[in-house]
Amino acid sequence: MGETIFTRNRSVPIFIGALALLAIGVTILSEAYGTGALSVSFTKVLGMTLCLCLAALAMDLVWGYCGILSLGHFAFFGLGGYVIGMWLMTARTEAVIRANLEGRPLPPTEVEVSEATALQIFSVVGAEDWPWMWAASDNLALSLVLILLVPGALALVFGWLAFRSRVTGVYLSILTQAMTLALSLYLFQNDTGLRGNNGLSGLQNIPGAEGIGQDRISIWFFWASALALGLAYLGAAWLVSGKFGNIVRGVRDDELRVRFLGYPVEVYKLVIFTLSAMICGVAGALYYPQAGIINPDEIAPIASIYLAVWVAIGGRGRLYGAVLGAALVSLLSTYFTSGRAPDVELGFYRIEWVDWWPVLLGLGFVLVTLFAPKGLAGLVDFVVRKDRT
Amino acid sequence: MIRSFVAAIAGALFLAVAAHKSEAQGPETGALQTILQENADLVANASRQTVQEVLDVLVASDLPEVPDFLATWNTRELYQRQSDGLFVYVEDPDADPLTLLDISTGEVVGTATSREVDQLRPNRGVQGVIAATLVQFRLTSDDPEDRLAALASIESDPEESHLALLRDLVETEEDGRVRRRAEALLPALVIAFADADEPRVEAIRSLAGNVSLSARATLNPLLSTQVRISEALPEGENIARELRPGTDALSREDAYAMLVEDGLATPLIPRRTRADTLAANIVDGAAGGVPVETLNTEEARDRAYATLVEAGQADPAPTEAEIDAALDAHVFYEVYREDSAAVTDAARATLDGIETRVAFYRFLDLSLDGLSLASIYFLAAIGLAITFGVMGVINMAHGEFIMLGAYTGYVVQSVVANETLSIAIAIPLAFAVTFAAGVAMERLVIRWLYHRPLETLLATFGISIALQQIIRLIFGALTQPLSPPDWLAGSVSLNDVVSISSIRIAIFLLGAVFFVLLWLILNRTRLGLEVRAVTQNPKMAASMGINPDRINMLTFGLGSGIAGIAGVAIGLFAQVVPDLGQNYIVQSFMTVVVGGVGNIFGTLVGAFMIGSLQKAIEFMNPSNTLAAQTYMILFVILFIQFRPRGIIALRGRAAGD
Asked: Do B465 and A108 touch (CB under 8 A)?
């Protein structure tokens, strides 16, 4: 008695507390429920950042704890987004179609509504029939389940294939990168049923919430993102601090020895890889309704590399490091590339941050890798006594 | 001859009178003008029936300027002066006043406003007759080039009158080139215009095995068909085949729609029409006795519509049984547009033979395509085969080295205009630039990370995005030109099916040269020996007096330098943009992994496999490169499951672990 996750992992109470404070602070400053100091778009940026933090947390689980550097995690993120996007788009378009058919002398039949909706959604790629993968798009409950199942199933199949044949290290990284590239190329095609490079759009319009302004919707999604991040953090901390966590860390440090000790290494890897993919799916499903649009570009390999880099900059194998890294780098990127940062006048040259930020970011990666292998969270070790694993 | 002599005298007399009337008219009028004045009314108001007469006179005159005159007349650029009826050309039809030119000598004969002259506008029929005469003229010209030009115009726009001309030409022609051209052209005209079946069939047979596009374009129209309907298969028509409704060739719906179109069956009632009919028959909030609010299911609408039909207020929809009966009562068949069965049979047989050959050549062409794609992949991956394959360094900036090479080529070309020379300078320079960049990167970053391979990946990724952005800042994000020399711009073609662009051949050769060179360096030189030693066991190598630092640096530089040269080659056919390298990096890694890490022979095999596979998939699913890439990557992922160490796996100590 007495030993709970809060006492075993001291970062948990601090993290949950900080997240709660952030949520309260944002609510007080929000347009919908507070002073209005934070604009709707900035609230959305914060909410999306929390989703990215959630993805980074999932990444830390596989990379920081299990040593699998996945360069394809954005595939799972994007799949989550596509699944919820299909429901959002179908429900929204159907509502619009029904409103349009209102004036007709006869009430519309289901077939008419369905055909008109399909035409509306797919005419942009020259099709008019529902592709098979949209079968669940008219059912919210099923879509919500699929947010977990679709990325999970992909991770399960891919992981089973890869771990079974003992593809490890760099080869696994390249394989995961190939996976996300294949998925994005697949989605780029117009005839595969997800509207090609048009992607799914208008996702910020939540069906059934037509009368509610974006100011309130944005803060609701922020809360949902914060809640998801908090729960995932709690769950991840619980998972890695038990026996499961120890074995997984053992796999990271010496896979062969763990295997010789009799543990089914593949099963452990598969479980954590699939779990991580599901968390990523949830993150994506929360992210894209705030972003409003998803297209195959989001799944391109470079996005997943960035995710890995965030985790590396934040510091691997300590959960809060990944979250901090993702939050810091993505917020800084937003700040510098949105043109809000003041340009630096050097007299002979004018440094415009929009242009120079990627250079700075790239060199930053190099410096962090070379001089701070533990990432920014390594700084925490200077403050806290080294009495934790 | 006598006739033209008489004509000339008559013309001269006429002109003497005309000259007398008008002071501006010079006495030295050409013979052509004379003939025209003689037939002035036929020229000015030419009609299809009468124009042949004046054309015959012109042909008979044998004057050298007649072809030009006919061409000008035909394109409606001939004018007639109103004051004296003189036929003239004008210098610039848009000028005002117009400068009038003599039709024989081209000398200026005066000026006139556009109201003082009439432009002669022969109608289509007349134009056709003139064009035919013109072809005849050109075919009998003394200059073989003229005759070739005439044949080209026949080929692009054949007419029945050409057939006889062409036959004569084949008989009499002495110039080999012209005769071959004419002989090649003859079957198409015979097939199109000959009256009897026999020469046509013979002409068709003469095309056997001819894979050129024109041969297929000649034969295909002979086999074009149209679908007809009747109660029973008719006799005496050239029927291609009978179609049964409900098969792939003719769906049940299409068949019924054809019956409806021909008025042989009652139309189906589309859902939309049914809804409109119901809406038009709403009485007291109900249509067909069914309340409107409940008409939101298909079943309810069917019921309401049936009631309307019974009441005679709507057209009945045919039942399934009626549709079947209507389909059964009729025969659907395809009939050739060509009436003669002998001709269509011969065309079918000949075309089948041609298609078989074409399929073979397609396969050959596809193999060449695959080979060329493979050499591009090989070129992009070979530098990586050294840095990643031999040294085990994951260099995500490899693509940026390719990009740097391409930009070096662009910079050289903007200084040195001559393409051949600039490429010759760019290749060693690109090697130097990327060699230096590679060495600098190895010294500054990579050598600290040899024990942490996954982190090399992150650091080099950082370098990759920084390099991309720096290039973007210097050169802008737009595509920069890097053009190949003229002698690489064309393509080599075996026939109309198989062709390959010269640049691809050059890339293939470059890839082959690289492979041989690298193989020699790695296996036959001191450096290669030391590289292999350091790769296998750095400590042991060091104790043998090899400096591992120096070897690592040189090896990495070599791999990077080769990427630079590959960049120049790739830049010649791809677009030179800052993110050029991104398109190659993932494929390059896959090439190396599939081939087998640690030896460049594996990379060669890997590139060959990936390239030919992608082309093969593209062949099965044409016009979809994206799909081909998707399936190719999926295949690679699966392939790695079964051969995790690649096609050519190193064994024993060389394997390194």
From this structure: no
Tell me the pLDDT band of A23, cut-offs 50, 70 and 90. very high
State the pLDDT at residue B234. 81
Is omega for the bond preceding B316 within 30 degrees of 0, making it cis?
no
Q: Are B582 and B503 contained in the same domain?
A: yes
Mean pLDDT of B607-618: 88
Residues in chain A: 389
Question: Final residue of a domain: which of B223, B250, B277?
Answer: B223
pLDDT given at position A90 = 93
DSSP state of B267: P
User: What is the per-residue pLDDT across B59-114, written as a single tens digit (0 to 9) for each?
Assistant: 777 777 787 888 888 888 888 888 888 888 888 888 778 888 888 887 888 888 87
Q: Domain range for residue A327?
A: 5-203+213-383
More confident residue, B24 or A268: A268
DSSP calls for B305-335 = HHHHHHTTSSPPPPPHHHHHHHHHT-EEEEE
Question: Look-up: residue for tokens 């990579």?
Answer: B446
Does residue A236 belong to any structural domain of this protein?
A: yes
Q: Token pair for residue B258? A: 């054809």
Q: What is the DSSP letter of A30?
A: S
**Residue range A183-218, pLDDT digits in tens:** 999 999 888 888 988 999 989 888 888 778 888 899
Of A289-303, B272-286, B424-438, which range is least confident?
Answer: B272-286
Q: How many domains does chain B have?
A: 4
| Locus of tokens 């350091």 | B534
B624 Ramachandran zone, left/alpha/beta (phi>0; psi -120 to 50): beta
Query: Which of chain B's residues have a Cβ under 8 Å away from the Cβ of A110?
Result: 296-297
Interface touch A165/B454, C-beta < 8 Å = no
Q: How far is A216 from chain B (nearest CA, A)?
A: 36
Alpha carbons A342 and A358: distance in angstroms, whole number: 16
From the list A83, A304, A26, A177, the residue with the least C-alpha distance to B589 is: A177
pLDDT at residue number A57: 96
Residue A209 touches chain B, beta carbons under 8 Å: no
A274, A275, A222, A276: which is closest to A57 by C-alpha? A276
Residue A257's pLDDT is 93
The residue from B89, B106, B127 where one domain ends is B127
Q: Best of A175, A194, A310 to disrupt the B interface by mutation (most B CBs within 10 Å)?
A: A175
Task: Give the residue numbers spanning the domain of B199.
Answer: 140-223
pLDDT digit string (tens) for B238-294? Answer: 888 888 888 888 888 888 888 888 888 888 888 888 888 888 888 888 887 788 888
Provide the pLDDT for residue B14: 52
- Structural tokens at position B184: 């090649």
Residue B233 lies in a domain: no
Which tokens in the block code for residue B382?
């070979």
Which stretches of B140-264 are DSSP H helices?
144-156, 160-172, 176-193, 197-206, 213-219, 252-261
Report field, pTM of the whole predicted structure over 0.95: no
- Chain B contact set for A164 (CB, 8 A): 641
Over residues A75-92, mean pLDDT:
95
Pair (B477, B438) in one structural domain: yes
A75 contacts A309 by C-beta, under 8 angstroms: no
Of B109, B117, B29, residue with least CA distance to B79: B117
d(CA B241, CA B250): 12
> Which residue is closest to A101 within chain B, CA to CA?
B296
Distance, CA of B322 to CA of A352 (rounded, Å): 76
pLDDT of the residue at A1: 43
Number of domains in chain A: 1
ipTM: 0.86
Q: Are residues B183 and B208 both part of a single domain?
A: yes
Sequence-ordered list of residues with C-beta below 8 angstroms from that of B447, at least 6 positions apart, any chain? B549, B552, B553
Looking at the fold, whether B401 and B506 belong to one and the same domain comes out as: yes
User: What is the rounded CA–CA span in Å between residue B472 and residue A358?
Assistant: 11
